[in-house]
Amino acid sequence: GFLSVIHSMKEDYITAAWLIVIAAIMDVLDGRVARLVKSSSEFGVELDSLADISSFGFAPAILIYKSYFSSWDAVGILISFLPLVFGGIRLARFNVGVADVHEKDNFFKGLPIPSSAISLCTFVVFEKSVFGEFRHAEILTGLTIIISILMVSKIRYDAVPNFSFKKTEDVIKMVLLAPLLPLFILYPSKMIFPGMMFFVLTGVIRAAIHLFKHRDQEDEIPHMGAVD
């Protein structure tokens, strides 16, 4: 995260973005390694959150400000600040157990801050790869606002899955992902951002479906009572 900020200051935005992606990969691995060697602790949890706010809150905020919003004066500062402040709120809420990981159901409440950071920084990479320049600041504005709100929402998002051939759902996921994996490896600049947008939308769509089903059930209860 610190190296990403340094590269953003040097206007080397693509390197800055990829460093955030690398930080996200390390974030996935550190918890697994800690559990594997049985060295997890409260100290580790707090240190992890401080690393998260640096790599996935502050670093993306600097990246999008320098690459897109520095000419927008106070408005640009405000937009760039959103991932940092909402990410900080999410991490604080997580640490006090309000938005904890439900390991049994394998989901997070709200969009995880690493996913938020990857979505924003790979937008920068995607724009440069496809258009050769950073031109759609308005789109990034909307994306930044939505991503920030989703971090503190109650929408459920899948945690990093532990794939198993014993579960039918996991087998289906592996079958669907297998053909796409070579594309992500060969064309990461063009594929990761659309992949992240798909991940973000799955949570929103799933929440919308759940909401409509819940409303339908509430509508049916009075009707059934009237028939009785």
Would you write up a description of this structure?
The chain has 228 residues and is mainly α. 76% of the residues lie in helices and 3% in strands. It has helices at residues 2-9, 13-36, 42-69, 73-95, 113-131, 137-151, 168-177, 181-186, 188-227; strands spanning 107-109, 156-158. A two-stranded antiparallel ribbon has the order 1-2. Helix 2 runs antiparallel to helix 3, helix 3 runs antiparallel to helix 4 and helix 5 (113-131) crosses helix 9. The longest helix is centred in the last third of the chain and has 40 residues, at 188-227. It is globular. Residues 99-104 have low confidence and may be disordered.
What is the topological layout?
Blueprint: H1 2-9, H2 13-36, H3 42-69, H4 73-95, E1 107-109, H5 113-131, H6 137-151, E2 156-158, H7 168-177, H8 181-186, H9 188-227
Antiparallel strand pairs: 1-2
Helix pairs in contact: 1-2, 1-3, 2-3, 2-5, 3-4, 3-5, 4-6, 5-6, 5-9
The helix-strand sequence is HHHHEHHEHHH
Q: What is the CA-atom radius of gyration, in angstroms?
A: 20 Å
| Strand residue percentage | under 5%
Give a count of the beta strands, DSSP E runs of length 2 or more. 2
Low-confidence stretches: 99-104
Largest sheet: 2 strands, antiparallel
Rough outline: globular
Mean pLDDT: 85
Question: First CA to last CA: what distance?
Answer: 62 Å
The helix tally amounts to 9
Structural class: mainly alpha
Helix content: over 70%
Instruction: Describe the strand arrangement of the main beta sheet, using strand numbers.
Output: 1-2
